[in-house]
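Hello forum,

I keep getting stuck at the same step: I have a sequence, I want structure tokens, and every attempt I make locally crashes halfway through. Rather than fight my setup again tonight, could one of you with a working pipeline run this one for me? It's a single chain of 101 residues.
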Amino acid sequence: MNGIDWGAFGLGTVAGAIAGTIFFAGLAFGLRLALRGSRPMPVLALSALLRITALLAAGWLVARAGGAAALAGYALGFLATRFAAVALARPTAPQRDRKCN
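Reply #2:
Ran it on my machine without issues. Output:
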């Protein structure tokens, strides 16, 4: 039975969180630029191409450096960052008045 390299997993998790933060910051920046212009499609396409390429390149580097454990940590770090980004971007629900019975 093989053990998990927790050091590589931790470094992969940190790298995934950093990559996720940069990815979603780039998404926000690209959307703001696209919504300001008259032709948003080229801006969105270029933004997606750059972000996806950078994310895959970083994942490849992490996998080469730390193996499967680091890659699993990278994916977990990115996923955690995604959940945080969605939670921060989602608007809050309006407060409803409670009826007294």
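The radius of gyration is 19 Å. If your local run keeps crashing, start a new thread with the error log.
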